[in-house]
Amino acid sequence: MLGVVTAAVAGLLLLLLLLRDRLFPFLWEDLGAFLALGGAAARCRRRLSRRPVVTLLEVFQEHARRQPHRPLLLFQDEVFTYRDVEQRSSRAARAFSQRLGLQPGQTVAVFLPNEPTYVWTWLALAKLGCPMACLNSNVRGQALLHALAAAQATFVLASTELRDALEEVLPDLQRDGIKVFYLSSKSPTPGVEALLPAIEAASDEPLPGHYRAGITANSKAIYIYTSGTTGLPKAAVITELKLMMVASLGRICGIRGTDHVYTTLPLYHSAGLLIGVGGCLEIGATCVLRSKFSASQFWDDCRRYNVTVIQYVGELMRYLCNTPKRDNDHKHGVRLAVGNGLRAEVWKEFLQRFGPISIWEFYGATEGNAGFINYTGKIGAVGRANPFLKSFAPFELIKYNVEQDEPVRDERGLCIRVRPGETGLLVIKITKNTPFHGYAGDSKKTEKKILRDVLAKGDAFFNSGDLLMMDHEKFVYFQDRVGDTFRWKGENVATTEVEATLAMVNFIQEVNVYGVSVPGCEGKCGMAAIRLKPGMSFEGENFYAFTKETLPSYAAPRFVRIQEAMEITGTFKQCKGNLVREGFDPTIIKDPLFFRDEKKKSYVPMNTDIHAAIREAKINL
Ligand SMILES: *[C@@H]1O[C@H](CO)[C@@H](O)[C@H](O)[C@H]1NC(C)=O
Ligand SMILES: CC(=O)N[C@H]1CO[C@H](CO)[C@@H](O)[C@@H]1O
Question: Helices 56-66 and 116-127: crossing angle, nearest 10°?
Answer without folding.
Answer: 110
